[in-house]
């Protein structure tokens, strides 16, 4: 498997994080972040680098937490 996949996935993940912190009301950043974590899991399985699955679960979980927090804050307004 090409090393470029790792670079591309990292770039998309960083874009998701950037968009998450750029706008606290939009869901685009967390959606990209969660989506890219699914691709990281596929990459981990294809390359047999199993610890990437743990990383993807942690990052995905943090994005889900962010979405839940945003929804809670919106409902309080």
Mean pLDDT: 86
Low-confidence stretches: none
Helix content: over 70%
Name the beta content range: under 5%
Total helix count?
Answer: 3
Strand element count: 0
Total domain units: 1
| C-alpha termini separation | 48 Å
Radius of gyration: 14 Å
Structural class: mainly alpha
Approximate shape: elongated
Largest sheet: none
The helix-strand sequence is HHH
Transmembrane segments: 6-21, 26-43, 49-67
Keywords: Membrane, Transmembrane, Transmembrane helix
Brief digest:
By secondary structure, this protein is mostly helical. The chain is built from 3 helices and no strands.
Any overview of this molecule?
The chain has 77 residues and is mainly alpha-helical. It has one domain (13-76). 84% of the residues lie in helices and 0% in strands. It has 3 helices and no strands. The radius of gyration is 14 Å and the shape is elongated.
Spell out the key features of this protein.
single chain; 3 helices; elongated; mainly alpha; 77 residues; 84% helix
SSE map:
Blueprint: H1 4-22, H2 28-47, H3 51-76
Helix pairs in contact: 1-2, 2-3
